[in-house]
Amino acid sequence: MTKKKVEEAMPQEMQEVIRHALPKLEETLKKLPAEKVAQAKKEVEKLFSGDLSWADLSKYTPEKLQAITEMGYNQFRLGQYDSAERIFKGLTVIDPDHFYYHQMLGATFQRKGNYPAAILEYSVAVDLNASDIVSLTNRGESYFKLGIFPLANADFDKAIGLDSKDEDRWAKRAKMLREQIRLMKKEKK
After folding, report:
1. Which pTM does this prediction carry?
2. Tell me: the pLDDT tens digits for 36-82?
3. Taking the CA atoms of the chain, what radius of gyration do you get in angstroms?
4. Binning pLDDT at 50, 70 and 90, where does residue 85 land?
5. Could you tell me which residues come within 8 angstroms of residue 91 by beta carbon, excluding any fewer than 6 positions away?
6. How far apart are CA 52 and CA 159, in angstroms?
7. How many CB atoms lie within 10 A of CB 174?
8. Is 130 helix (H, G, I), strand (E, B) or coil?
9. 75 close to 63: Cβ distance less than 8 angstroms
10. How far, in Å, CA of 64 to CA of 53, rounded?
11. Where are the domains of the chain?
């Protein structure tokens, strides 16, 4: 399957996650020596095969962890949610204070329909980075999916409030979802 067909098969929200995070990952990877990236990819393959444990990763450099993060992101992007979940769970254990790992684990749970687990991970991400519009919007959407509209609206309002220039695509998504709730309530009257 071509990259374009894979992208077309992905839900719109997943495409937005990818567009938001990919430039940051690519920029970081450009700074790394190619041999280090290649070695980190081999080690991730060992992780998938079971030849390497998460405990072994604790001695890894930030560059190696970045390469593993990229692998997890690529698994997520390709819809390999079980693999992405394993990677991001491990990364949250290794570095529990890194909001992005929790954001991506939340996104993985959300894609799998495990909204309570997604809400938990997004909450950790927001606690670590109060201006994380992505996690606020996605947590709000998870509440929305569970029918917990007051909490969904609270998150949407926070996400929208963080977008002072009215440019952020995630804040725009929050507005759209908040409007859906309003319309649903109006129809029930």
Report:
1. 0.69
2. 777 777 776 776 666 665 555 567 777 888 899 999 999 999 999 99
3. 17
4. very high
5. 65, 68, 69, 72, 98, 101, 105
6. 39
7. 28
8. coil
9. no
10. 14
11. 12-95
